[in-house]
Amino acid sequence: MKLFRYGQPGAEKPGIEVDGVKYDASYLINDYNEEFFNNGGLEKLRSDFDPDDAVKVDEFERIGVPVSKPGKIVCIGLNYIKHAEESGSDIPKEPVVFFKATSSITGPFDSVVIPKNSKKTDWEVELAVIIGKEASYVSEEEAMDYVAGYAVHNDVSEREFQLERGGQWVKGKSCDTFAPIGPYLVTKDEIADPHNLRLWLKLNDETLQDGNTSDFIFNIPKVISYLSQFMSLQAGDIISTGTPEGVGLGFDPPRYLKPGDVMELGIDGLGTSKQTAVAYKENG
């Protein structure tokens, strides 16, 4: 299933796309959130949704983040060998873990705001994994049982905040609008092999990232099992699995976002998203 949410920020409704047509699903489901996953929402949709009973969604509706209010966004850094090399980092022996604040989440076609005082805002196309039920101390063999589905994520990053201001990476990862996610949550049954997906990103129509999840250093079962040794993963949580080479930091000289730049990105089977970078403006 291809699940999406539509409407204005804070007032999104759940939807489902069937054969390229978007339908409202709010007559069956309140929202795609932790309660939905924990109470068998995916199974209910599969069994009860009928396009003949549903209203079509207008093509001009805003598309929001496909999961409502995830408890956390856990990210894996340096998970592609060539990206680790372009970042000047050693190949990690264990997954590099950091968080993005959930306040950074925004829709897949919303603008990305270059933060106040930013000079080094960067792009990162990533495969996001959405957790479908609580995972605690799970084995690699059973880890995929905890996956609800997948989504496209642009892990927007401010490199000065991240790398030059001391402390942890979270400061450079959590600015408002720094986590465009979607357009869909594609359920795992739709994706034959999540470890063989092309993912790409264009900046102003120039392809800068073009990789494949087959290049993961740590695959999805390893990442889920590893994280579950340190924290419980809750239904609706998002794990972002790292980015391939081609980020702005890796160019010589480095390239960073400026107002008016357009990022377009996608992953096989998961759709595409598109964001325009805009300058920060003071309120009022």
UniProtKB/TrEMBL annotation:
Pfam families documented for this protein: FAA_hydrolase (PF01557)
Keyword Hydrolase: yes
Fumarylacetoacetase-like C-terminal domain location: 72-276
Keywords on record: Hydrolase, Metal-binding
Domain of life: Bacteria
PANTHER family according to UniProt: FUMARYLACETOACETATE HYDROLASE DOMAIN-CONTAINING PROTEIN 2A (PTHR42796:SF4), FUMARYLACETOACETATE HYDROLASE DOMAIN-CONTAINING PROTEIN 2A-RELATED (PTHR42796)
Full protein name: Fumarylacetoacetate hydrolase family protein
Organism of this sequence: Rhodohalobacter sulfatireducens
